């Protein structure tokens, strides 16, 4: 305050002595700046989109940075099913058949034969849901349980039949059925990312910063759908813990994963599993060897950091999205490896990567799905491991 910035002479009262001519020149130069600023202010005032303050104070840990990383994971990566897999979002591995099930943008659930040789990684059209299959989980009767963003929770079985299990709860339809897993006892845990926005408008849900997500269960024996938790921030990937104590789900726009106890003394309670993630989490998968793989769609760039903090910045981005398209700053997407307690172990990512939606370790390879690329990316992480950074 004691040292105010110098103010341009045309804008101060103390500069009344300046000549008329000087003032007009000043206005002349300001004109091209003022018009868009005034227009932007008007559009801002008129637009009814009303982003909320997000509860960032709830984030408990300092930003999570694991000791080991591979920050150039595209070097040495291979591309599986190029051209045959548009937006392969989730990757469910069936070790008996040696295939990965993945849901694509065109509605197909495809089967990808896992093979050391890329040439033998054959892609087969399996079942088309007619919607947009996102999360997938293997059922107990050779079926695949599908969180279909458009249709709801589905049962896709070998003979090509797709059965709707549920698409609403508590009088509210699902708008983005997103993540799913099946417990050993057959109970299905899944998420609806938003009851307000559909998948093509998901960015509006993130920008609005309100909690439209739910975590739910479906009991195949009674056909009952239960809302376990509501008011979640873009509820996304789901995984049941290997000992069946709890189910973990990701909340993308709050960059955290929570655990919900499904058995035992703590049944029904919810706790933070991991938060302050270095990126926006999508699916979480268990590798059968004591680790979870959390896909991070993009790092939290400084501009996203600001946007999450300040609703008016999200509003400006929303207005840009509406009229001109928002700037795309997504980068450093990848996968975070964490142990059963949620302790981060390693981070695989690449500056060039964005919208990575799933990571699954099969043999030597880390396979990555995305909602963007027309292939699955895989990397031999025995050959290209994450290493301890100096
Ligand atoms: C894979 O297929 C391509 C084209 O058919 C062929 O040129 C290449 O030699 C094959 N690679 C291997 C390792 O079999
Ligand atoms: C899915 O459908 C198959 C074939 O009808 C059936 O055997 C299986 O029990 C169903 N799964 C669920 C969870 O409803
Ligand atoms: C992965 O790389 C390791 C080390 O280079 C190699 O021994 C192994 O055969 C590779 N795995 C596959 C499936 O290609």
Question: Your description of this structure?
Answer:
By secondary structure, the protein is mainly beta. It has one domain (40-51, 67-388): Neuraminidase, CATH 2.120.10.30. 14% of the residues lie in helices and 39% in strands. It has helices spanning 20-46, 202-208, 302-309, 311-323, and strands spanning 68-70, 78-80, 92-94, 99-103, 108-113, 123-128, 133-138, 144-148, 152-156, 162-166, 168-169, 172-173, 177-182, 188-192, 213-219, 224-232, 235-240, 246-251, 256-261, 270-274, 279-286, 291-299, 333-339, 344-350, 356-362, 365-370, 376-380, 387-388. The strands form seven sheets. Strands 21-22-23-24-1-28 form a six-stranded mixed β-sheet, with no helix packed on it. A four-stranded antiparallel β-sheet has the order 2-27-26-25, with no helix packed on it. The two termini are 42 Å apart. Residues 1-19 have low confidence and may be disordered. The structure holds 2-acetamido-2-deoxy-beta-D-glucopyranose (3 copies). One 2-acetamido-2-deoxy-beta-D-glucopyranose (NAG) is lined by residues 116, 363-364, 380, 382-383.
Secondary structure topology:
Elements: H1 20-46, E1 68-70, E2 78-80, E3 92-94, E4 99-103, E5 108-113, E6 123-128, E7 133-138, E8 144-148, E9 152-156, E10 162-166, E11 168-169, E12 172-173, E13 177-182, E14 188-192, H2 202-208, E15 213-219, E16 224-232, E17 235-240, E18 246-251, E19 256-261, E20 270-274, E21 279-286, E22 291-299, H3 302-309, H4 311-323, E23 333-339, E24 344-350, E25 356-362, E26 365-370, E27 376-380, E28 387-388
Parallel strand pairs: 1-24
Antiparallel strand pairs: 1-28, 2-27, 3-4, 4-5, 5-6, 7-8, 8-9, 9-10, 11-12, 13-14, 14-15, 15-16, 17-18, 18-19, 19-20, 21-22, 22-23, 23-24, 25-26, 26-27
Helix pairs in contact: 3-4
